[in-house]
Structures are given as structure tokens and as C-alpha cells.
């Protein structure tokens, strides 16, 4: 059996206000092409199809069309679960009919224990759940934390294990030992909501969703596919793609197939001057999404507008070393500054910002204006 | 062919703040029971399955469960369309799969022209649409109003007519000549958004949705089923139910099957005293929803709270004849009133409200207090 493992589509997601519809649509088409080329026997989507529990109509139309294409047009079996970003209730719409064409989309914990039975493989589809759901399902209030709940869930799954078959699990959670990036939700922070990886040891492969980087967990038989698209600057260095899982081999053979974005998400650290004059630099695709860090320390008037002329899709802009003016002012106390004459303050300020002294004419204007201001009169 | 015609479920609707989930669930079960008893060959739902374009999760779960029960559990073919209250995009979720079990749910105008082909009948499912949709579909900007657009739509449908079969249409709009009630949307007000009934003449039966009363249109071969539940006081007098349509007869034979609410919606006009003492009246089910009109003309302290002790589900409360105090004051001008002494005003006011004069002790207190107030002192 050859399966394609993807997750965390997050349809509807934006990158600091930038629409990612085209990126997500394009990544989907690459996934579809890989599935066809590899002639996979099915596609696992390990949760977070949507970015929000209440998706926009445009997102609903997009996910509907994607599932339709994979399952009804291309005739791929699909094995999917809801993630913590999905509304399990809304995602459940239509699922009783989907099974007829081997589209399995599980959204309730109760569906986790009856595997999809293939000739040589059992696929357990465990949607995202919270300890409370396990307490309800097992009628057991002692399942206070996710690790306890998940241990109980795996025990229950094992009761259905057919020893003559391989056992696959699709699930959506934070496996202990994995590193988080800042585009996942707060739910992943802290140890409470983590699942110890040893609970996954009884499966031949665990197709995980939740963390967006494929290297977030290094276990031979459990992997995050990561998201198909970079959703934050913290994912800039990540390679995006899908796993091709060959279950005919023991251990299962994993091959990572990369996805190429239309516009990449990149971090760039350089001086304003270099950046502004980088238009001919073949190493830079100026249409990418950029997190720019300036090495300059002086103030730069209109800096964002001027940079956006060269890099239209700036996601964030920051300074590597702060501002030199701040450094200079560290030598003067508030008391010292307050003792200075207004004209001295003005001259110092102008020089710091403009990097040149006032001209004699400017100084004359300033003096006249200051005098009028102190006398309460109007400048002429 | 025997079909059940229902419409305007409006799942998620509330009646002046009262939850109608139980009423709607119960009405659904009655519809299901009628379909089974009548052994119908299919169920037409003529739009407005949801009350809102963005339904709550609980509403989504309810509609999902209802469609699943009719189609997958009871194996009824279902012929449904989206109404103006539905989000066509959200309602489209799963529809490509639904067809496999003869659940046809059309949400786009483009789906209106290919009928569902049964042995002796063609069913055209025309979702709610606006003139703009028709302009787009036909690439014809001249279709400015719904009557023009609908004429074009019917012309297009007729091209697919099989003369050897009966022709049924399910649609959701305001047919001219029908009477509106105030629980439909403003879209139905005025002639612009109406469809002339003569456009419906070429169909053997038109199963309409949009208006909530079954008597809103009297055409032999076109009917509103009305909503299964009363959604406003203006529907209090309506008989709710579904049509059983027998297409084997010419003209089609229509039988109305009534639905019985758990708690009815009723108008009640009586005196406060009668109503408060009506607890033993067998003609009144005090758990119904009531629009109460009081015949009293005097003010009644705490009137709503006292009535709610007897009628817990009061929807509205009004007066038939206004207040008698208002009538009395019509004889006095503002100028006349302002000339009265404060003590006279107080005595008159008390008498009007309490229907009895001040006692000597009350009058003494009032005089003392008025004197202190006019002197700016504090009452002792």
C-alpha cells in the first residue's frame, strides 16, 4: 500500500493580512499531481482542513471542491480527520454519504475505534479531541489530561487490531518531544496537552497533523507531514511537502516529496541601502513574502513605503541593532536634557535625525519662531 | 408517483427569543411518519432548510441528522433546493456525494435545467436565485427583474421537457397573487421580486417554498406547503402541514396532512382578570405561545410578571383600547395642568393610578413632604 500523508491545510488562513488562496490552491494541485504520479492507494489528511471553526463561504467552497476533486474526479480513497482548527460539527456535514466512495472523514472520538479495513492494513482515524471528550466516551472522570486520555484511546484501538494486518493511525495533536513553531495555537504550549511518543509505538505508521514542520518529530514510524504552505515567518526555513508512505516494507518506507510555493516566505537581513538597490540581484525573488531585518541603526524616513516599492510583500520589518540615537541618548539623563536651552535641544535633535547641522538660514527661522512662541505671538 | 411536499424548515429559528428546537424536531418526526405511512416515493423540500446563512453548529447538526435519517435510514429519495435564508455555498457541502443515494440538493441556478429523471416524471429543482444570477448564467443583462429572469429560466427548462412525462418544479420565491405574512423577509414585499403565476402553468405541479401559509396561493397545480412550525404570531391562525402529491392523476391530486405542534402559537384577547383566573379553563393550554391583547384600559402594576405566572410563554402583550388615563387627559391642556397646585396634581395622579383617593394620613405625608421640598429641606 502506498499512501500520501498531508495535513494542516488551514484553508482560509492569511499571512499577516496577505491572502494565501492562490498559494493554497497551487499547493493542492501539486499534492494532487504527486498522488497521481506516485499512483498512491489513498490520501491521508491529518486534520485542520480549515483555519477556523467558522470558515468563510469562499473557504467552504474551496475545501468542498478539493475533496470532490480527490475523491470523485480522481477516485482516490481519502482518510481524513478533523483538527483543533476545524469545527467537528460543521466538517461532519455529508460524511455519512462520503463513505460510499471511500472518503472517510472522522470528526468524533467515537469513530476512532473502528478502523477502515483494507486488504492488508487497518487505518484508525482519530480526530482531534480533548480530555473531556474521552471522559464522556469512556464514562471515566479520571482521564484528566491528554496523555491519560490518549493512552486509553490507544488501548481501545488495540482491541480491534487484526494481527495479520499493518496498523496505521492518523491523529492530530502535539506529540511530546516535538518542537513547536509560533503558528500553531497555544494549545500546544506546555506539557499538559502533549502525548508521549511511546504511546505511538504499536502502530506501523502514525500520520500526524498539528505541527507545521515535517521535522517536528523524529520517530521512525510517526511523522508530521507539516503544512503544504508556510503560514508564518517561523516556518521560513522549513521545507514543505508530503510524505509518501509505503506500507509494504517493514519498517514502512518514507519518502518526502517537496512542494514549491508560487511565492516563498523568507527572512532577509541587510542594510536599507543594499535592499533598495537589490532589484537586479538574481538571488532574490522580490515577489516573495519577506520578514526584513535592517542592519541600519539610523532613522530612515518613510522606510516601509520605500522598501515596499522593491519588496511589495513585506510581512514584518525590524531592526537588528535598534537605533543609534537611542545609544547616544543613554549618556544624557532626563535632568541634563531639561537643563538645555530650547534652541540647543532643537539643533541637537535635527542633527541626530538629519545627520547634518542646521543651515544658518534654518537656524535663523528656528530662533525667530522660538522667540515668537515664548512670547505667545504668532509666527509671521 | 406519490411525493411529500414540505418547505421552510428554518432550522435555528427562534420565536421572540423562545427556542423552537423541540417544536422543529417534533414536526420533523411527524413529517417522517407521514412519509412512511403514505409510502411516498420521495420528499420535496422547497428551500429554507436553515433560518440563517451562517447557522449555529447545533442547527448544522440538526439538519445533517434530518437529511441523513430521511435518505440513509429511511431510504427516501429527497428533492431539495436552497432558499433565500440558506447559504447556497454552505448548503452545497456534500451534495456531489448525496446524489448516489437519490438525495438531490440543488443550490445553484445552473443545476435547475437538468431535471431528475424518474420513470414517468421529470423533477426540476430550481434553487432561490436573484436576477443577477440569471444575468450571469444566460449572459444577458436585460434580465433586470425576477419576472423576466424567471420567464427565461422556465423557457430553458421547457427545452428539456420530455412530453411523455409529467413535469414537476420545486422553487422558492414569492408568486404574485399570494398573500404575505410578516415572518418572511422584506424581499417578498412589493411587486418587483414576485413571479407571475402564469409562468407556472406549464408544470403539472409546482412545489413552492418561501411563504409560510399553505393558503398563500390558490392555483390548482402550484402550492406553498407552508412551514411545518408557526414562526410568528401572524401565522397563529394557519394550519401547518405537508402536501401529499399524487402525480398519477390528472390533474395531480393534492391532500394536505396536518402537523400538530407540541405547543401552539395563539392569539388571546381578554381582560386581565379573566386571564389570571383562567387556570382551570379547559379551552386554554397555558403552555402554548401566546400573543395576548388585554381589553383592560386601566394601568395594571407588574402586568407581564403576573401574566407569566399563568402563561409562561407570552410572546407579545398589548392593549386593545389603550389606557383610560390617556382618554381622560385629552380634556386638559398642558397649560391647564401647569396651573394646578402640586398637591392637586399629586392627588389626581394617585387617584388615576390607584383608582382610589389618598387617605387622610397619605395626604398629610404628601403635604409635609411637598412643603419640605419647596423649602429645600430634607424630609424628616
UniProtKB/TrEMBL annotation, chains A, B:
Bias (Polar residues) ranges = 369-380
Residue stretches spanning the membrane: none
Write out the entry's keywords from A to Z.
DNA recombination, DNA replication, Endonuclease, Exonuclease, Hydrolase, Nuclease
Domain called Calcineurin-like phosphoesterase: residue spans = 1-213
Tell whether Hydrolase is among the UniProt keywords: yes
Q: GO biological process annotations for this chain's record?
A: DNA recombination; DNA replication
Q: Which PANTHER family match?
A: COMPONENT OF ATP-DEPENDENT DSDNA EXONUCLEASE, NUCLEASE SBCCD SUBUNIT D
Q: What is this protein called?
A: Nuclease SbcCD subunit D
Q: What organism is listed for this UniProt entry? A: Secundilactobacillus folii
Chain's gene name: sbcD
